C-alpha cells in the first residue's frame, strides 16, 4: 500500500514524462505503485478534460487513500500530483505557481517544447513551491 505521506508530482507531455518530483523516497515497490497509480489515471484525465473547460481538473482518481489531482495546460501537457488528501486550495495554488514557472520555461529559447525538463533552477523552484503549499 502507498504511503499516506507520499507526494509525487509529474509533468507529462504528449508522449513521455517531462519532469518528476518524488518527495518521499520510499521502498522500490511503493515507488513503482505510485507511478502505476499516476499512469493508470492518464485515461481518466482525458475523460475529465472533456467534461469541463477548466484547466484544474481536481481529483481524477482515488486509490488506497491516495488521490490524483490534475491540471491540464492549453497545450495538453498534464501536471499530475499523487497525494494523501491535501487541501484543494493548496493544490490549486501549487498548480497555478508551477504553471507560471512552466510558461516562463517555455519562453526560454534554449528549451525545446515537449522535451524532458533538466533545468536545475526549475527543479529548485518546483521543490520550493511544493514546500510552500503541500507540506
Question: Overview of this structure, please?
Answer:
This is Trafficking protein particle complex subunit. InterPro entries: Longin-like_dom_sf (IPR011012), Sedlin (IPR006722). It holds the Pfam family Sedlin_N. The chain has three helices and five strands. It is α+β, with helices and mostly antiparallel strands. The protein has a single domain (8-134), classed as Beta-Lactamase. A five-stranded antiparallel sheet has the order 2-1-5-4-3. Helix 2 packs antiparallel against helix 3. The chain is globular, with a radius of gyration of 14 Å. The two termini are 21 Å apart.
Q: What would you say about this model in short?
A:
It contains three helices and five strands. The chain has helices spanning 28-49, 88-106, 120-134; strands at residues 8-12, 17-22, 56-63, 66-72, 78-83.
Predict the CATH topology. Beta-Lactamase
Q: Name the poorly predicted regions.
A: none
What is Rg? 14 Å
CATH class: Alpha Beta
The structural class is alpha+beta
Order of helices and strands: EEHEEEHH
Number of helices: 3
- Residue-averaged pLDDT: 88
Protein name: Trafficking protein particle complex subunit
Pfam families: Sedlin_N
GO cellular component, one term: cytoplasm
Organism: Minutocellus polymorphus
How are the secondary structure elements laid out?
Elements: E1 8-12, E2 17-22, H1 28-49, E3 56-63, E4 66-72, E5 78-83, H2 88-106, H3 120-134
Antiparallel strand pairs: 1-2, 1-5, 3-4, 4-5
Helix pairs in contact: 2-3
Amino acid at each position: 500500500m502507498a504511503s499516506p505521506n507520499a507526494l509525487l508530482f509529474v509533468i507529462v507531455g504528449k508522449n513521455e514524462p517531462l519532469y518528476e518530483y518524488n518527495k518521499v523516497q520510499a521502498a522500490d515497490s511503493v515507488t513503482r505503485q505510485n507511478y502505476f497509480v499516476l499512469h493508470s489515471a492518464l485515461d481518466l484525465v482525458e475523460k475529465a478534460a472533456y467534461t469541463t473547460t477548466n484547466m484544474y481538473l481536481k481529483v481524477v482518481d482515488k486509490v488506497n487513500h491516495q488521490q490524483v489531482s490534475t491540471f491540464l495546460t492549453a497545450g495538453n501537457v498534464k501536471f499530475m500530483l499523487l497525494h494523501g488528501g491535501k487541501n484543494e486550495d493548496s493544490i490549486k495554488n501549487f498548480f497555478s505557481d508551477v504553471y507560471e514557472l512552466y510558461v516562463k520555461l517555455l519562453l526560454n529559447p534554449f528549451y525545446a517544447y515537449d522535451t524532458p525538463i533538466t533545468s536545475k533552477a526549475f527543479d529548485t523552484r518546483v521543490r520550493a513551491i511544493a514546500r510552500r503549499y503541500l507540506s
